[in-house]
Every structure is written in C-alpha cells, then in structure tokens.
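User: Second chain of the day. Same drill as before.
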Amino acid sequence: MNWKRFFDFRELSDEPKPFLDHIEDLRSMLIKMVAVLALMMGAAFFFQGTIVKIIQRPLQVIDPGMTSLTNFGVADPLAIAIELSFYAGLVMAFPFLIFFLAEFILPGLKPNERRLLYPAAGVSLGLFLGGVLFAYFVVLPPTLGYFFNYSKSLDWRPQWSVREFFSFTTQFVISFGLAFELPLAVLLLVKLGILNLEILQRTRAFAMVVILFLAAIITPTTDVFTLLLMAGPMYLLYEGCILIARVMEKKARRESLPSLNEQP
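Assistant: Same format as last time:
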C-alpha cells in the first residue's frame, strides 16, 4: 500500500470541480477515516488489559477496598472490550481524523482560511486530549466519589456493574474532550469575522443557556451535579475566548495603524 499517497493532500485549486468529483473525495475521506479508526481499535483491543486497569484506577482513589466490579451478563466482557476499544481507538485516531477532514475541506477554502487550518488542527487535538485528561484526573474521581458516598449515606452497598461503570466512564471523558473544542470553534468564528468581542460580551447570558443545554445532552447522566461539572469548565473556556478575542482585536487594530498612517 502506498502510505505516502494515503496521507497526501488533494491538489489545491481555485477551479470549480464537478459534483461527482466531490462525492468521490468524500468517499475517499470516509474510507480513510474508517480504516484508521479500525486499525486503532484493533491496537486498543490488543492492549485491553492495560486500558481496563487505567479506567478502573479512579475506583482505588475513592475506595481502596473496591478491587473489582460485578459482571451480570454472559457476553458482557467481550461487548465491553469492543466498546472500550472503540473509545480508545477514537482517542488515538483523533489526529488522523482531523487530518483527513482537513484534506477534504482544504481545497474549498480561501487562502487566508487555509492558513488557519493547520494551527487549528493542532489546537483541536490539544484541546481534545486536554479535556480527556482533565476529566480523568480532575473531575471523574470526585464525581464517582459523590455517587459512592451518596449511596453509602442511604445505607446502600455500592456494587457497580462492569457495563454501567465502563459505559459511564468512557462517555464521561470523551464528552469532556468534545466539550473542550468549544473555544476553538468560537475563536475560528472570531478570526473569520463572523463573531467579534462585542457580540461575545453581549451574548454571555445566551451562551450560558446554550452551554447548559449542550452539557445536558453530552453528559452520560441526568443529575445536576454532573451537569454543573461539565458546564462550569465550558463557561470558563467561553470567558477565556472573550479574553483571547480582546487580545486579537487589539492586535488587529495595532496592525492596521501603520497602513492608516501611510495614507496621504
């Protein structure tokens, strides 16, 4: 297989292409995405024992005595292993998926927009991995501890099933990874002139409602505690976008001053 061709970008051209050519490019992109995701899933399945230990680590943080989970289904171990392989493969394949998406949309962008794509792809990967790590190390342990201690306060013995625990944990960290993409989307809209500092400041209340709505959709549970743990960092990231937008606008004004002064 020609791996160089597999990762080559399409030739950039400002000439319009036939519709069927776009469909062929889309098909090629989807095939590459599925192939890389399947490859990463296979690699993750091979190391499923290590992945299981990593995901179960927060249990030791909240209760050192909880050494195992309960398995209720006969085929659950295989089904869970496949599910874990998918999520782990998605995390490992994320930079490649971004690359193939860029490969598809890059020829349709203007020159100034193309220059933004490369750093945006890198920032997107960093934000996604940052969200996953933040959820795993900072948010997940206290969340599990909250539900664990709440159950004990009702004189119930916490005995979590393997399927529910791994489903909750993987969806939780992936959701944070996706949620951390919010600043990139906002800053790209600012850079392209669709949003500006004034709009971001004026729509703070509306943004909070949207963030709560998105957090309610992507969180794996329906409790208010988890929703706030998701919405809080998202809103702080939005405020960070406002600060960065202010810096970007000040920089743009400084760069425009010399050109104004040069006019007769």
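Residues 62 and 145 are 5 Å apart (CA to CA).

User: Great, on to the next one.
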